[in-house]
Amino acid sequence: MRIITQHTVGDPDVLVVEEVPTPAPGAGEVLVRVGGAAVNPADAAVRAGYFPLLGEPPFTIGWDVAGTVEAIGEGVTDHRVGDRVFGMPRFPAQAAAYADAVVAPADQLARTPDALSDVEAAALPLAALTAYQGLVEVADVQPGQRVLVQAAGGGVGHFAVQIAKARGAHVIAVVSPAKEAFVRALGADEVIDYTAGPFTDSVEPVDVALDPFGSANTPDVLQVVRSGGIVVALLDVDDETRELAAARDVRVEQISVHPSGEQLTAIAALVDSGHLRPHVSATYALEKAGEAHHELATGVQGKVVLVP
């Protein structure tokens, strides 16, 4: 089978195609014939050496995967050969999703909603789990709360808008003008153009803020979060900023996404009920992974997906 690998960190051109034997699933694992593998900013950061999750090359990046179960290992009862599944296996360890086939722990996968293709389902796991874990597991967003979502037109952001709306929140989306219509169509109640001036000048106090940028951005976010509110940060927040938050009676919770078959099933239910839909902006053949990474760097709307 084909796999995308790299022997050094660097720009997208370090990604190369190699032939390797198809792996066999062990106990508790399944072999998935890949129908789609999404490209995430975390993939690009690992590829470039900025986020050394996988140590030194050679390694294969990629975690988001959707496809069909081709073989099952001992003890697997939740999935059968022929089932369509999707997931984010093994993160932050190597999953090697940029490939024709992937072996994954069965309990880190969920059944793909019938309404989605494999390409669409592959766009869900890492970004939708990040949004779900931040807004549901950590912030426990409630009906009527005001939720601020920065970078609302991106991978995590476009799911965060939909998940917050599904929970009955009033959603304020911060985007560039090019993505305003997109986030309004997702259900955003208010849209703020961050190029027109500081977003803090245009936001009434919110209960929850999803902050994708961390320390350099969080002090600004704190200006618009009311006392007793929460900032869900996707990157590190320094001690000085945490002290500032505590003085304002605001919780700061920095999250790192983790695999969860149970939460993927809840996300699939949101798809089935019509409350959540992934947006795929572009697809690339597996062997064009480098080109897909170049596309991702342009600031795409939604997700980019590789197709074996």
UniProtKB/TrEMBL annotation:
<feature type="domain" description="Enoyl reductase (ER)">
    <location>
        <begin position="10"/>
        <end position="306"/>
    </location>
</feature>
<dbReference type="InterPro" id="IPR036291">
    <property type="entry name" value="NAD(P)-bd_dom_sf"/>
</dbReference>
<dbReference type="Pfam" id="PF13602">
    <property type="entry name" value="ADH_zinc_N_2"/>
</dbReference>
<keyword id="KW-0521">NADP</keyword>
<dbReference type="InterPro" id="IPR002364">
    <property type="entry name" value="Quin_OxRdtase/zeta-crystal_CS"/>
</dbReference>
<dbReference type="InterPro" id="IPR020843">
    <property type="entry name" value="ER"/>
</dbReference>
<dbReference type="InterPro" id="IPR011032">
    <property type="entry name" value="GroES-like_sf"/>
</dbReference>
<dbReference type="GO" id="GO:0005737">
    <property type="term" value="C:cytoplasm"/>
</dbReference>
<comment type="subunit">
    <text>Homotetramer.</text>
</comment>
<dbReference type="GO" id="GO:0016491">
    <property type="term" value="F:oxidoreductase activity"/>
</dbReference>
<protein>
    <submittedName>
        <fullName>NADP-dependent oxidoreductase</fullName>
    </submittedName>
</protein>
<dbReference type="InterPro" id="IPR013154">
    <property type="entry name" value="ADH-like_N"/>
</dbReference>
<dbReference type="GO" id="GO:0003723">
    <property type="term" value="F:RNA binding"/>
</dbReference>
<keyword id="KW-0694">RNA-binding</keyword>
<dbReference type="InterPro" id="IPR051603">
    <property type="entry name" value="Zinc-ADH_QOR/CCCR"/>
</dbReference>
<dbReference type="Pfam" id="PF08240">
    <property type="entry name" value="ADH_N"/>
</dbReference>
<keyword id="KW-0963">Cytoplasm</keyword>
<dbReference type="GO" id="GO:0008270">
    <property type="term" value="F:zinc ion binding"/>
</dbReference>
